[in-house]
């Protein structure tokens, strides 16, 4: 393996949506980026090609974050191809809006497997494998503070992530690694817009006092700050990026 020159970042769920924008931004800021995906192989490959053509270092790694063995392999492959990891961004997640009483056992298990166990698996691996001085950014959601009907199981899965964030920041004492979380409000991604009427979209857009939906770039900018030297004194925090919604 060649001598590591760039800082290395893993972004989970990075083949599309907010994750892809985060991966692009970190690459533009000089990071070698491992783009994790579960099923969107074509999108991940296209993103790698795009970044490489722009002169950046990027690889795609298929791994299910809810599977501990997959997560170990993701770190193994990243280290082998790019070098030891400096930044972990836990972006992978799922959301199904449904009243609690209508959740199946399978949907409950799936939500917690990806959103909660997925974060647990990557944090556990990062505990011993992240470079000193590294940065971890988890993904929560502003819905945790809103208690919206239909979001109960999703909110519960993300509330656990917030607790992980605050405790893990203390458990990494002595390694100069910060652990924070970003909690976006509604963001105009394909995932958010799909299946919603124009009226529903406009209702969400008018909720924040800034009277618009968030853009993926808004969230990527927060991630960029949290992994930068400028955020060296920010640790164990949940940063709500939602235009003042809550």
Plain-language structure description:
Helix 4 links the parallel strand 4 (87-90) and strand 5 (135-139). With 246 residues, the protein is of the alpha/beta class. Helix 3 runs parallel beside helix 4. It has a single domain (8-183, 219-240), classed as 3-Layer(aba) Sandwich (Rossmann fold). The protein has a 7-stranded parallel sheet, with helices on both faces. The model has no long low-confidence stretch (mean pLDDT 96). It is globular. The protein has 9 helices and 7 strands, in the order βαβαβαβαβααβαααβ.
Number of helices: 9
Please state the second-level CATH architecture: 3-Layer(aba) Sandwich
By CATH reckoning, the class would read Alpha Beta
Termini separation comes to 47 Å
- Number of separate structural domains: 1
The helix/strand series, from N terminus to C terminus, equals: EHEHEHEHEHHEHHHE
Question: Structural class from helices and strands?
Answer: alpha/beta
Taking all Cα atoms into account, the compactness measure Rg is 17 Å
CATH homologous superfamily annotation: NAD(P)-binding Rossmann-like Domain
Biggest sheet strand order reads: 3-2-1-4-5-6-7
How much of the sequence is in beta strands? 5-15%
CATH topology: Rossmann fold
